[in-house]
Task: inverse folding
């Protein structure tokens, strides 16, 4: 199906032809004596999928927490187009069009519809009293939000689960509810924190398809943190690689997978051939990690 952001509930946030650039400039974050991010810079080009990868502890989640306003950097800045995001509260950043999902599932209560409607909350113009009193304007607005939530459920493969309690969903579906809830904010930039972590091969392939569709249909930019290199190589236009809080490489998926610094960070030795078994690159040789794409039984990338 073809979807466009609706106009009556988010008039101030209709995307222009493309979302604005998300620019991260020289961002440094310290925790006591530890520098978790050390003058990190990268730009998420409008409408692109940009992956942020790196071994465990590289600083990926810290970076997401800066982008979504949970952490304030000691120096550097983040801008969405001309709007500075650094130092703004998370709900302000969300209202500017930057939505995120979390590594671990946070949605456990209510139906899929309930959760998606929570995602629409930030876009509601009718106040609590008008909604509680079911004033006509509030009722119309609620209807529009529900219709949009249904469209997003369809786009994310959850249409047949719309009225189902999330507690009864499969793990993969629950992860996609998180994604759908973030989309309900009508973001211009979507931050996906390990969207396929813990999924089996079929669920990962399905979610990869959904991310692809969402980007194409909604024309938004995606910043993706993911250990699954198959997914990164399949979806990303550009990749930034962090290690110990520093940016060590940047380029297309093909460029970074051959980059000597990247091979050293993941495998401990530069230029060694990467094993092709496990694509979940957590960054330790003991886990047999790799920067290879995973293939299904027919040899197609998943
Ligand atoms: N709140 C915190 N307090 C202190 N240290 C922290 C905090 N959050 C992260 N760190 C440290 O900062 C560094 C970067 O951690 P971060 O979680 O950003 O890495 P990551 O790349 O997301 O790792 P993973 O792939 O394991 O999720 C690590 O050394 C981590 O222990």
Result:
């Amino acid at each position: 199906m073809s979807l466009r952001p609706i106009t009556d509930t988010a008039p101030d946030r209709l995307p222009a032809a493309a979302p604005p650039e998300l620019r991260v400039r020289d961002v440094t974050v310290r925790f006591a004596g530890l520098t978790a991010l050390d003058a990190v810079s990268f730009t998420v080009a409008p409408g692109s999928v940009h992956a942020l990868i790196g071994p465990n502890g590289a600083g990926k989640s810290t970076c997401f927490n800066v982008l979504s306003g949970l952490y304030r950097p000691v120096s550097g800045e983040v801008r969405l187009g001309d709007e500075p995001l650094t130092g703004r509260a998370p709900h302000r950043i969300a209202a500017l069009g930057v939505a995120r999902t979390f590594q671990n599932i946070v949605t456990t209560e209510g139906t899929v519809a309930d959760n998606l409607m929570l995602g629409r909350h930030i876009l509601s113009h009718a106040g609590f009293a008008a909604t509680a009193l079911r004033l006509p304007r509030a009722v119309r607005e609620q209807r529009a939000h529900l219709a949009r939530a249904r469209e997003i459920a369809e786009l994310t493969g959850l249409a047949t689960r719309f009225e189902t309690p999330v507690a009864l969903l499969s793990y993969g579906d629950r992860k996609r509810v998180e994604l759908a809830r973030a989309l309900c904010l009508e973001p211009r930039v979507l931050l996906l924190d390990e969207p396929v972590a813990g999924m089996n091969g079929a669920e990962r392939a399905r979610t990869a398809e959904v991310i692809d569709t969402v980007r194409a249909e909604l024309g938004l930019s995606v910043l993706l943190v993911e250990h699954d290199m198959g997914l990164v190589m399949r979806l990303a236009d550009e990749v930034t690689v962090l290690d110990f809080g520093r940016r060590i490489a940047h380029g297309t998926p093909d460029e970074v997978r051959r980059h000597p610094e990247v091979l050293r960070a993941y495998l401990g030795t530069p230029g060694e051939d990467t094993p092709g078994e496990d694509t979940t690159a957590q960054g330790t040789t003991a886990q047999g990690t790799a920067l290879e794409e995973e293939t299904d039984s027919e040899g197609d990338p998943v």
Observations:
- The CA atoms of residues 49 and 192 lie 10 Å apart.
- DSSP finds ten helices and ten strands in the chain.
- The first strand starts at residue 22 and ends at 31.
- Residues 20-287 form a domain with the Rossmann fold fold (CATH 3.40.50.300).
